[in-house]
Specification:
The complex is a heterodimer.
Chain A (H helix, E strand, L loop, with lengths): L5 H22 L14 H19 L11 H21 L1 H15 L4 H22 L12
Chain B lengths: L8 H22 L2 H19 L5 H14 L4 H26 L10 H48 L3 H18 L4 H16 L1 E2 L6 E2 L13 H19 L17 H23 L4 H17 L9 H17 L1 H7 L5 H12 L8 H4 L1 H30 L6 H20 L2 H19 L5 H23 L11 H19 L1 H10 L6
Antiparallel strand pairs in B: 1-2
Helix pairs in contact in B: 1-5, 1-15, 2-3, 2-4, 2-15, 3-4, 3-8, 3-13, 3-16, 4-5, 4-11, 4-13, 4-15, 5-9, 5-11, 5-12, 5-15, 6-7, 6-18, 6-19, 7-18, 8-16, 8-17, 9-10, 9-11, 10-11, 13-18, 16-17, 19-20
The chains are: A mainly alpha, B mainly alpha.
Chain lengths: ~150, ~525
């Protein structure tokens, strides 16, 4: 894909909005009591200002950059699996949930179905054994006890 | 060497003897069987993780930090293990750089230039050996310098008040924005985002909630392990999934072994590169990427007879030595000033903060077991790594043959297990993923992540000092610019930021040097 300046402009706009948002949020802080005369407002205001300035600089003078597109669908699949993972982790337990997460990632990285299923189950079980059983750091145990 | 309080030669000599006794004390901490074992485990795991394609030192430390913390290791032991991981992964990182042409870390980008051709010529084993020796020499000589420099620097820093600290940190950020590679505006934005993320939660000074958006989970702030795993582990995996990074493993067994004359021929290059690496490493913001680039360029200018880039041993030894020297030297500002100069030292600093230990000049007097135990463990770690690496490098290299679809699911699962073990909260896992996805977007848009991490770690120190300084002066900002040290720091900061704007050619050269800075 050809190099173009849109990415820098969009990024600059995001930083500008975030910076102004931070400054605005800082002004809205209600201080009932502060141990020091300065309080919690000025620092986020300054930092928000720096962010807004950096954003404005990118917006005004964007550089052309190339975006190298990869396999979007795979990235999205792994990201969605990772978002869902914490939701199911406690209900179904570490080993089943992690096996499913690993399965999605293994498939996205080109493993075959059978290979990926076996590898994911072994990985999840091995990590559970290492962390929970051996090191004694508790991981969520679902209805299956693992 | 400047030594506050004692300016005559005899007294200066006294300081050095003091350094030696402290070092001896450090060895008594680091050489207990338990800590030796942790250093060995750290070094071995670090080499193994560092050897994985695309995974650099920072990923290795980030992956294991939550476990160190949840296992309730004493702080000096945790730090010894993390430091073992740190330089272990530096040794391991060269394996994928040389055999696979994939640098796991910007500091290793120069290693591929002569390393990969050597591997293609069937001299992979020799290339790994010479870079191991270079890493050892760079690392060890720098620890010696660190031993004698850290305390005088810390003594100097003890006299710093809040306004000097504010100026010093702003100067570090300024150096980061010009020397760190990447566009200046993007680096400043990353610094600001890091500072803002660290402000999330209840403000210690006033009890006011900042940037929590009414979320109960965010009251305590963003957890350090959540941030680092999201920034480095999750985003790295998304980059791998995207599938743009491919490589073919070069042959490493067999081939002509490294000969002694070859090592001797590389020695001058190694010594020069140690010097370059040391100076680049102690400056905040420059670090290993700039050090190895400078060392390679310098060595090419001195000894190139048309062989550099085609598999010259010296072209491999120079950046490898400088990389390790800079890695170790970046411990100097971390230990003596409490200000990290690189992403990895920022993680180590964050680890100390998790233990409620404030790093900085007083660390040497108040918690000598941590400061000197860590320094002593670096001597031990370097020897361990050389012994571990020369015979076993083939074993570590075999890790490159493990297919991605086995390797990366295991890393992702370990990352989430780590965050869960450290926080016991499913919410933190969601946050980890969100941070990971955003960090992936930032990498695609060439926004550097290291400055964000450093800023996140420094926020508390910076804001506290700013507020302390301003309350001393009843709110007048003039106090920030009154002491001589503070003025020097401000002037340097201004110079570093303005020089590239005035002289674009200088800027272009710095960017060429630190090409590839991203993770």
């Amino acid at each position: 894909m050809a190099a173009n300046a849109t990415y820098d402009r969009a990024l600059g706009l995001i930083f500008l909005v975030l910076g102004i948002g931070a400054m605005w949020h800082a002004q809205s802080l209600q201080v009932a009591f502060a141990a020091d005369p300065i309080g919690p407002k000025p620092f986020p205001t300054i930092v928000g200002g720096v962010l807004a300035l950096a954003g404005a600089a990118l917006l005004i003078r964007p550089e052309r950059m190339a975006w190298h597109p990869g396999s979007w669908s795979k990235v999205a699949a792994v990201a969605v699996a990772s978002i869902v993972y914490p939701e199911v982790l406690i209900p179904i337990g570490f080993v089943p949930a992690t096996s499913l997460l690993c399965l999605v990632l293994a498939r996205a990285l080109g493993g075959g179905w059978v290979q990926s299923i076996i590898a994911s189950a072994i990985t999840a079980a091995a990590i559970f054994a290492l962390i929970d059983v051996l090191l004694g750091l508790p991981l969520p145990r679902g209805p299956l006890g693992v | 060497m400047f030594c506050s309080g004692c300016r005559c030669r005899a007294a200066l000599w006294g300081c050095d003897v003091e350094a030696l006794t402290s070092l001896a004390y450090g060895f008594s901490v680091a050489a207990t069987p338990f800590n030796l074992m942790l250093a060995l485990v750290g070094a071995a795991l670090g080499t193994a993780i560092g050897a994985l394609p695309g995974i650099g030192p920072i990923n290795a430390i980030v992956l294991l930090l939550p476990f160190c913390f949840s296992l309730n290791l004493p702080p000096e032991s945790a730090l010894i293990m993390l430091a073992g991981l740190y330089y272990g992964s530096g040794y391991g990182g060269r394996i994928s750089s040389i055999l696979l042409n994939i640098p796991g870390d910007p500091g290793l980008a120069m290693t591929t230039i002569d390393g990969y051709p050597l591997a293609q010529q069937g001299r992979g084993a020799a290339a790994l050996a010479i870079s191991g020796i270079g890493s050892f020499i760079g690392g060890t000589l720098t620890v010696v310098l660190l031993t004698f420099l850290a305390v005088p620097l810390a003594r100097l820093a003890v006299s710093f008040g809040p306004s000097e600290y504010v100026a010093l940190m702003v100067m570090s950020f300024a150096l980061l924005s010009t020397m760190g590679g990447g566009r200046m505006a993007k680096t400043w934005a990353a610094i600001a985002v890091g500072l803002l993320l660290a402000m999330v939660g209840i403000d210690g000074g006033s009890g006011v909630e900042r940037f929590t958006f009414g979320s109960l989970e965010l009251l305590g702030g963003i957890d350090f392990t959540t941030l680092t795993i999201g920034l480095f582990a999750v985003s790295e995996i998304l980059v791998v999934v995207e599938g743009l990074r491919t490589g073919k493993v070069a042959e490493f067994s067999g081939g002509e072994r490294l000969r002694t004359p070859e090592v001797i021929r590389c020695l001058p290059a190694m010594l020069r590169s140690t010097g370059i690496g040391f100076f680049a490493g102690i400056l905040p913001g420059t670090g290993a990427a700039v050090a190895s680039a400078l060392a390679y360029t310098a060595e090419k200018r001195i000894s190139d007879r048309g062989t550099f880039g085609k598999g010259d041993m010296r072209g491999l030894a120079a950046p490898e030595t400088a990389d390790n020297a800079a890695q170790t030297a970046s411990m100097v500002p971390m230990l003596a000033l409490g200000i990290p100069g690189s992403g990895t030292t920022a993680v180590l600093l964050g680890a100390l903060l998790l233990y409620s230990i404030t790093p900085g000049p007083l660390l040497f007097t108040q918690r000598p077991e941590i400061a000197w135990g860590l320094i002593a463990s670096m001597y031990i770690g370097n020897v361990m790594l050389l012994v571990l690496n020369l015979p076993l490098v083939g074993l570590f290299a075999r890790l490159l043959l493990v297919p991605y679809w086995i390797l990366f699911p295991a890393i992702l699962a370990l990352s989430y297990a780590g965050v869960y073990a450290a926080t016991n909260s499913a919410f933190e896992l969601v946050l980890t993923t969100i941070i990971g996805v955003i960090a992936y977007g930032m990498r695609k848009l060439e926004v550097p992540l290291i400055p964000l991490l450093i800023a996140f770690v420094l926020e508390r120190l910076l804001e506290d000092n700013l507020r302390r300084a301003l309350s001393l002066s009843d709110g007048s900002p003039v106090i920030l610019f009154t002491s001589p040290f503070a003025i020097v720091f401000w002037l340097l900061a201004a110079l570093v930021v303005l020089l590239p704007l005035i002289a674009p050619r200088f800027r272009a050269r710095v960017r060429d040097l630190s090409e590839g800075e991203e993770s």
